[in-house]
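Hi V.,

Quick status before I head out on leave. The structure for the redesign project is tokenized and pasted below; the design run finished overnight.
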């Protein structure tokens, strides 16, 4: 009977840990400090075209 309660406790503790970790990641992702990095990452694919020469762009 004792092992059942330990197993239940560990499952509950894991669930709480996973939830707290998820909330921490959401807060980190939505923090204002990260906005510049995320904007830069979002524009990476679009900015790559500017690095190509005119001849390379015509071949596309």
């Amino acid at each position: 009977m004792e092992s059942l309660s330990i197993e239940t406790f560990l499952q509950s503790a894991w669930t709480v840990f996973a939830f707290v970790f998820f909330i921490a990641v959401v807060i980190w992702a939505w923090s204002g400090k990260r906005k510049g990095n995320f904007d830069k990452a979002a524009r990476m694919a679009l900015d790559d075209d500017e690095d190509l020469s005119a001849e390379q762009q015509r071949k596309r």
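Above is the designed sequence. The chain has three helices and no strands.

G. will cover questions while I'm gone.

Best,
W.
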